[in-house]
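Q: What would this chain look like folded?
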Amino acid sequence: MCDSLDWPSLKSSRDTYDVTLFYKIQNDYVDISFPEDITQSTFSHRGHSQKFNIPYSCLNSHKATFSPRTIRSWNSLPQNLESAPTLEIFKSQSFNYLRFLISPLALTCIYVHPYDICLDRLAPF
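A: My prediction, written as C-alpha cells:
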C-alpha cells in the first residue's frame, strides 16, 4: 500500500530524521554535543571528509541505538549532502537520497546539480 501511495518506508523516514539530527548536532543548530565515544575519523576515506568512527560494542542491542545506527548512515552520505549550506537543503536532499538508497530502485544517472538528485530515470535492479 505504501508503494502505491508513494509513501516512504518507515526505515527511510527514521534514517532521514536521524541524519538530520546528526547534521544539526554537527553544525551547532541544537545545544547537544556528541558523547566522548563519538570521534571524527582521521583516516583518508572515499566520500566526504566528515566521517565518524562507529563506537565499538559487543552488544547487539547497542548497535541499534542512535549513535552507531546514525553514524553508518552519515558515513554513507555523498559529499554534497554532508556539506549542504542550509538545513532545508540537507533535509530535502537527504530524504531523497536515503529513500532511493533503501528502495528497490537504483538511480541510473549522476547528480545534475550539486543539490539535485536526478529522479527522472530510475531502473529496477
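The longest helix spans residues 10-26.
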